[in-house]
Amino acid sequence: MVFAGILNLPWWGYLIVALGLTHVTIVSVTVFLHRCQAHRALELHPIASHFFRFWLWLTTGMVTREWAAIHRKHHAKCETVDDPHSPQIHGINRVLWTGVFLYVKESHNRETLERYGHGTPDDWIERNLYSRFSVFGLVLMGFANVVLFGLVPGLAILAVQIVWIPFWAAGVINGIGHWFGYRSWQTSDASTNIVPWGILIGGEELHNNHHAYATSAKLSSKWYELDIGWMYIRLMESLGLAQVKKLAPRPRFTAAKETIDHETLRAVIACRYDVLAKYAKSVKAAYREELRKLRSRDAKMLKSLKRWLQRDERSLPEAKREQLVQTLARYSALNTLYTMRKELTSLWDRSTASSEQLVRQLQDWCQRADASGIVPLQEFASRLRRYA
Known about the structure:
elongated; 18 helices; 2 domains; 3% strand
């Protein structure tokens, strides 16, 4: 006779239970592991923090220090051979379907844990239970499932719990989130927003937004985007269980300055993705103007290169890079816009220049934009002087 369990539910009842339990796990990953531990975007009350640690031990067996270290390394080495799980390096199928094995492999790299695992819980229970007996939590959860729901439903729910995070987090987010979707911000990596409504994976679907502003507790940035993880954070904040520390900067503007100063420089660098987004609109306006001047054959060729005008040439396929260089040599306005975009990004792209030098570079950039004769570029330079 098969043990029936304490709760006798219809099949859809077990389905709701499985989805509910896995959703709590998703929230634990996105709020506790990701936003709180890996990026310090918020602080959690000890009660909330320990609940999430306990729940993750029961449902995933993941160790906080390992998860935070691997994720921090992903950001530090994104899309390089040292990235633990980049689909650009390992291939989309490997990351999507077997991403959990890439995670396990990196978790055994002591150098990764020592360099990137700082600041994570290191109390008695972490050292002697959660880290030391990580699989034991899954055993307890399986036992509880069987007692509550019966042998077959309980083990089925446990199986869903075990594969949920490896597939959706290690596979979908790390894989599709760097392969397919839309990009709100022109980050240097290949991150994408999978869909604008972050519900199923707790808001992690908005992966490009996260890579643009990694330390922000809120992952949505457009009016039509939804980050359900942020909703839970706000709820916990109202109950005194969370304190938000960092959010993505919002551009503020003042009257345009004739001379760039340090305040303007800091504002431009802090809001660099907003700057690039507005610059992209300037390029589109100039691009349309150029198209109106061309014969049909040249216009067709230029249209094929439209999306590459907003990309760093390092990220272009070799064939497209050569074609783009040849095309830009023929159209001085587009060449100016493309070159000045590269110069603009150099202000924050690992620059070793002093702040005084950067101020002078930005001032010179605006002066050359004014003298370019390209109306959209001149209008953009005027807007750039207004960042505050």
